[in-house]
Amino acid sequence: MKIMGVILQIGFLHVFLFLGIALKHFIPLPIPSSMIGLFLLFVALCCHVIKLEWVEQGAKWLMAELLLFFIPSAVGIVNYQQIFSMQGLGIIFLILISTMIVMGVTALTAEKVSARKKGEGH
Amino acid sequence: MIIAVFTIVTYLIYLLSKKIYKKVTIAAFHPLLLAPILLIVLITITHVSANQYLQGSKLLSHMLAPATVAFAVPIYKNLAIIKKYLGTIAVSITIGTLVAMVSTFLLSKLIHLSDDFIVSILPRSITTPIAMEVSKEIGGLPALTTVFVIITGIAGGIVGPKVLKWLSIKTPIAKGLALGMGAHGVGTSKALEYGKQESVFSSLAMIFAALITLVWGTLLTTFI
């Protein structure tokens, strides 16, 4: 029964995705339809147009299994032979280094800023 | 029919990979690395071409779109936390996105990447559907961007926890923001292993990173 509920709710989330796709035609900015859908769902929840229970389980499942949805694209990497060349090694190296820098800087910034905020509060 | 087969096979291999990873917890066995490798081996043995597989597993990659919509739920549920930490989140992610683009650009120059590769790799630290959109806007190749986004996710899932350990990051907000900023959805699923707070901050980081990168992307296309 729980599975049916999750499937139904994922269907309901698609309503917001389709609204996002429709609305995208009228927005001259490069915002993806899924992001517009996210915004619409958020507004609908805030204005109590829909109840949290109507989407909560479906959303939880989609977010918990996020890795699954990346797997086909990861398999698709075999289509890019360049990745397996010397330049590919360079790119992987680049991404590793840059990701480490990004995470390090973001974490340190967050700790500094939130510590300062706490200090001001007291 | 084919879609059903590929979807089920992918799902089973995904479950298997998760199980193996839980047992061994070695970075090289991360599900986003192990599952695709197993699948590549499987389709090679069964003489299925990569494009046939991609067609057949479309339903799964499509789910990234409703999954993005679904992130409205944690935002809504954690509105109080967002209001409380808005400053920290905004500052950290603005700096994070800048560091991501600048470091990627400089390192790309260092290894002499061609221009179309550079514009395709710039939005790599944000979640796929949005990265593809940004890539399109700044003149990159969306399919290539997807590849870089995936590699970023795998890299972040593996080195992320190590970076946090080396820098002895303690607070859930810093851990969550770093994982979501550095490795989008993959980082967020990693954050879930740390705890609830971390995963909330990670989802928020992901959404903010996407939005702020869109702004950078728009500025970049307007002024260049």
UniProtKB/TrEMBL annotation, chain A:
UniProt cross-references to Pfam families, sorted A to Z: LrgA
Presence of the UniProt keyword Transmembrane helix in the record: yes
Record keyword Membrane present: yes
Keywords: Cell membrane, Membrane, Transmembrane, Transmembrane helix
Location(s), subcellular: Cell membrane
Residue ranges crossing the lipid bilayer per the database entry: 7-27, 33-50, 62-83, 89-110
InterPro entries: LrgA/CidA (IPR005538)
Membrane-topology descriptor: Multi-pass membrane protein
PANTHER family tied to this protein: HOLIN-LIKE PROTEIN CIDA, HOLIN-LIKE PROTEIN CIDA-RELATED
Record protein name field: Holin-like protein CidA
Taxonomic lineage from the root: Bacteria, Bacillati, Bacillota, Bacilli, Bacillales
UniProtKB/TrEMBL annotation, chain B:
Membrane topology reported for the UniProt record: Multi-pass membrane protein
Regions that span the bilayer: 24-47, 59-76, 85-107, 141-160, 200-219
Location relative to the cell: Membrane
Keyword presence, Cell inner membrane: no
Keyword annotations: Membrane, Transmembrane, Transmembrane helix
Pfam families: LrgB (PF04172)
Keyword Metal-binding: no
Principal place of residence: membrane
Listed InterPro entries: CidB/LrgB
Domain of life: Bacteria
Recorded coiled-coil stretches: none
PANTHER family per record: INNER MEMBRANE PROTEIN (PTHR30249:SF16), PUTATIVE SEROTONIN TRANSPORTER (PTHR30249)
Name used for this protein in its record: LrgB family protein
Organism annotation: Oceanobacillus neutriphilus
Gene that encodes the chain: ywbG
